[in-house]
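Researcher: Quick test of sequence recovery. Tokens follow.
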């Protein structure tokens, strides 16, 4: 993780964005509780991007007022991603659907 990404992550943590989310096909997964957050149940705002490393940091806020982050690297797709999630995060379409 780059120094800039670490700094951006620390800034969000100071604002209460303390939970980590992972991307799945059509939802986000809370990394601690493993609960799914459906696409219509959260807002995502791009907070930091580094196009040289393909790192993106999003601040996430769920309808239940859970604040967290989602770190995405365009070079690391672990799972297929729905078109709706690609659109929500404005990700390059590398899905293998």
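Model:
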């Amino acid at each position: 993780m780059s120094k800039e990404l670490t700094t951006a992550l620390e800034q969000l943590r100071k604002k209460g964005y303390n939970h980590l989310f992972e991307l799945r096909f059509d939802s986000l997964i809370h990394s601690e509780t493993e609960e799914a957050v459906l696409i219509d149940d959260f807002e995502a705002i791009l907070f930091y991007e580094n196009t040289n490393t393909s790192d993106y940091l999003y601040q996430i806020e769920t309808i239940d007022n859970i604040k967290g982050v989602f770190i995405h690297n365009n070079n690391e797709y672990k799972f297929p991603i729905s078109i709706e999630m690609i659109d929500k995060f404005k990700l390059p379409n590398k899905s293998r659907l």
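The radius of gyration is 13 Å.
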